[in-house]
Design a protein that fits this description.
2 strands; two-stranded antiparallel sheet; single chain; about 70% helix; about 250 residues
C-alpha cells in the first residue's frame, strides 16, 4: 500500500493540475473577451463616425430650411410679387430629412449581454444615453407636416417634379445635401408662378403656421446638435482623447 506521503503527493498533483487547467481556461476566456471587446469598439467607432457625419449634415440642412422659412415669412408679410427665388425658398422650407442612428453594434451588445465587456462604466452609460435619447427625439427631429402640405398643394406637381430633377435637396438621401435657391428653372416651370404663390399667401393662418414650423425646425437643429455632442464625446473616448467640454 502507498504510504500517506505518496497519497498526499498525488493529491496535491491532481489539485495543482486542476488549478493550472482552470487558470489556462480563464486566461483563454479573458483573451477571447478582450479580442471580442476590441472588435466591438472598432465597430462602435465606425457606427458613430457615420452618425457624426449624418448629424453634421442634418444640422446644416435644417439650419438652411429654417433660413428659407424665415425668408418666406418675410415675403408672406410683404406685398411683393413672387419670383423664382421666393418659390424655391418656400418649397425648400418644407423639406424633411429623417435621421436614425446606426445601432446594429449597440443592439448586438445589448441582445447578447456582451455590453458587460465594455468595462468603462462611464462610457457604457454615455452609449446607452446616446441611443435612448435618439429614440426619444425621433419625433422632435421630424418637423410637423402642416406647412409642407400647404406649400406642396400650392405649387403644381409638375413644377415640384422639375425642382426635384433640376434642384435636388438630397443626394443619395444619406450623405450630401444641396439647397440651392439660385437653381435655374425652365420657363415652363415658372409661367404660373405668381398665381401659385399668391394662392399660398392667401391661405388663412399661413403666417402663423409657417412661424410655428420655423420654431419646430429650430428646435430640431438644437436637438441634432445635442445628439452630435453625445456622438463626439463617445468618439473622443474611443480614440483615447479627453471628452469635449460642452
Amino acid at each position: 500500500m502507498k504510504n500517506r506521503g505518496q497519497l498526499i503527493g498525488e493529491f496535491m498533483l491532481i489539485v495543482i493540475g486542476v488549478l493550472v487547467a482552470f487558470m489556462v481556461e480563464s486566461w483563454l476566456q479573458q483573451r477571447h473577451d478582450d479580442d471580442l471587446r476590441d472588435e466591438y469598439l472598432i465597430r462602435l467607432t465606425a457606427d458613430l463616425e457615420v452618425d457624426h457625419h449624418g448629424l453634421e449634415n442634418r444640422i446644416e440642412f435644417f439650419a438652411a430650411i429654417r433660413d428659407f422659412g424665415l425668408e418666406t415669412l418675410v415675403w408672406l408679410k410683404s406685398s411683393k410679387s413672387a419670383d423664382e427665388k421666393a418659390m424655391l425658398a418656400a418649397y425648400y422650407a418644407a423639406e424633411r430629412w429623417a435621421f436614425a442612428p446606426v445601432d446594429n453594434t449597440y443592439q448586438d451588445l445589448q441582445n447578447t449581454g456582451n455590453i458587460r465587456l465594455l468595462d468603462d462604466l462611464d462610457f457604457r452609460m454615455l452609449l446607452t444615453a446616446y441611443h435612448t435619447n435618439a429614440i426619444k427625439m425621433r419625433d422632435a427631429w421630424d418637423p410637423p407636416v402642416t406647412y409642407r402640405k400647404l406649400v406642396r398643394g400650392a405649387i403644381p406637381p409638375e413644377v415640384q417634379l422639375t425642382i426635384r430633377e433640376l434642384c435636388p435637396t438630397t443626394i443619395n438621401h444619406d450623405t450630401e445635401i444641396s439647397l440651392n435657391a439660385q437653381c435655374p428653372l425652365p420657363k415652363s416651370a415658372t409661367e404660373g408662378l405668381s398665381g401659385d404663390m399668391e394662392s399660398l399667401r392667401s391661405i388663412p393662418g399661413i403666417v402663423e403656421i409657417l412661424s410655428y414650423h420655423i420654431t419646430e425646425v429650430d428646435v430640431a437643429v438644437r436637438l441634432f446638435q445635442q445628439q452630435d455632442d453625445y456622438a463626439r464625446d463617445l468618439l473622443s473616448r474611443l480614440n483615447g482623447e479627453s471628452p469635449s467640454t460642452q
